[in-house]
Design a protein that fits this description.
Number of helices: 21
Helix content: 40-55%
CATH class of the largest domain: Alpha Beta
Distance between the termini: 70 Å
CATH topology of the largest domain: Rossmann fold
Shape: globular
Oligomer: single chain
Number of strands: 12
Length: about 425
């Protein structure tokens, strides 16, 4: 594909991202699957252009307005070529040539804009903070204190490409063995700094073809998510309800903590997610689980079934994983955030009802927004009849990581700059006896 065809591909993908709620990586996989003629170099170049536009969209849109061109996927691609230079050898004029597979040639307005931008940089002193940091303006006041205390550095870290982490399945292998197998396959990897069974790849590599993956020796899972599962403190023989199990990532880690002994119930309103979880459970050798699709648990608040631990990996904004899904930040608005917080409130009430006296309620989100984290826990604890105590996590953190937690208090907010992980929140509450 020539630069012009690559530009049109990027425009088509960006339009698709605007028109749907599907993740950008899923849209791109579908796009390239239907276009086998695109080689690996083409795919890398197009993906690099798309992701830099998603990450720098605030500034690119600001420049569109400044030079007087309409904000569209086409104009974002044009300005990204000038201001971000993702392709070192491609000029805007060369990339916008008319042809069968390329975009329309530059208009007079676009050509004049290019001339006016020669030598300009993406950052400009007139840009407001929200623009220079590429976040929607309304979000500035929504971040948790841990982000606000180191705002610019943390937000810039959220623009970086996320690391690739794996969790070793201790039911079948150990970290040393998996590291050795990866290196024998030519994949450089190191232990994660916090999670005891985590591995971090030095660069992205295909994994599904490896025998170690097919045999269930490891699963892709971010370090923050691994830590949350370990901090839950489940033990062999426990009964555990994973209330929002999804495709089973947390449940797999919990099953390993339980050493495949006890009872593990996976609940999710989407049966398709649980079918994917079942495939992963079988590969990992987990046989203590049962699946509960539908809304039975959510609707039956008077359930007499009680668990040692109830885990709520609550649906949320996903603000902590915007490094992986930068398109999500532009889809979020205040109404959607309210919908998330209402759902989180319901899940906390439902989950609390299923915890036995002395048992644990573990609440977690991949969010860095106060409204989804401490605010939800504080609201829950202030409700009449709530009989839960918030647990300080210093002891659990020491048990999991072998290190001291660098702050005092209950609830843990992981952030990209401070911990080198996704943004992630976990709070553990214990139901009082009597």
């Amino acid at each position: 594909m020539n630069p012009s065809a690559r530009c049109q591909a990027a425009i088509d993908i960006l339009v698709a991202i605007e028109e749907t709620t599907r993740a950008a990586d899923s849209i791109m996989r579908h796009y390239f699957r239907a276009r086998r003629y695109a080689g690996s170099g083409d795919r890398r170049a197009i993906q690099a252009l798309v992701y830099i536009i998603l990450r720098k969209r605030g500034q690119l849109d600001w420049w569109c307005q400044r030079v007087g061109i309409e904000i569209t996927s086409r104009s974002r691609v044009l300005l990204a070529l000038i201001l971000c230079a993702p392709w070192k050898t491609a000029s805007p004029e060369g990339a916008f040539l008319p042809g069968k597979y390329g975009p329309a040639s530059l208009s007079q307005t676009e050509a004049a804009a290019i001339d006016g931008l020669r030598g300009a940089s993406l950052k400009h002193s007139a840009q407001p903070v929200s623009v220079s940091l590429n976040i929607p303006a309304w979000l500035e006041r929504q971040y948790c204190p841990e982000i606000k205390d180191n705002f610019e550095i943390e937000i810039k870290n959220l623009e970086c490409q996320a690391e690739v982490d794996l969790r070793v399945n201790t039911l079948k292998s150990n970290r040393g063995e998996v590291l050795s197998e990866l290196r024998n396959a030519g994949i450089e990897a190191i232990p994660t700094p916090w999670a005891p069974h985590g591995i971090r790849l030095e660069q992205r590599s295909p994994l599904t073809g490896l025998a170690a993956f097919r045999n269930g020796f490891f699963e892709p899972q971010g370090e923050a998510s691994q830590l949350a599962a370990e901090l839950a403190g489940v033990k062999p023989g426990h009964s555990v309800l994973d209330l929002c199990a999804g495709a089973g990532g947390k449940a797999l880690a919990i099953a390993a903590c339980m050493r495949n002994e006890g009872r593990l119930v996976l609940h999710d309103v989407d049966p398709a997610r649980l079918r994917r979880a079942e495939e992963r459970m079988q590969r990992a050798g987990v046989n203590i689980h049962e699946n509960q699709p539908g809304r039975t648990v959510l609707e039956n608040n008077s359930s007499k079934v009680k668990y040692d631990t109830v885990i709520i990996d609550a649906p949320c904004s996903g603000s902590g994983v915007w490094r992986r899904n930068p398109e999500a930040k532009w889809r979020l608005n205040e109404e959607r955030l309210r919908e998330h917080t209402m759902q989180q409130h319901v899940l906390l009430k439902t989950g609390a009802n299923a915890v036995r006296p002395g048992g644990r309620l573990v609440y977690m989100t991949c969010s860095i927004l106060a409204a989804e984290n401490r605010d939800r826990i504080n609201e829950f604890r202030a409700m009449d009849g709530v009989n839960f105590e918030l647990i300080a996590l210093g002891k659990d953190w020491r048990r999991v990581t072998g290190q001291e937690l660098d702050h005092v208090g209950a609830g843990l907010q992981l952030t990209p700059a401070r911990y080198g992980t996704d943004g992630f929140y976990v709070a553990i509450l214990q139901r009082r006896v009597g």
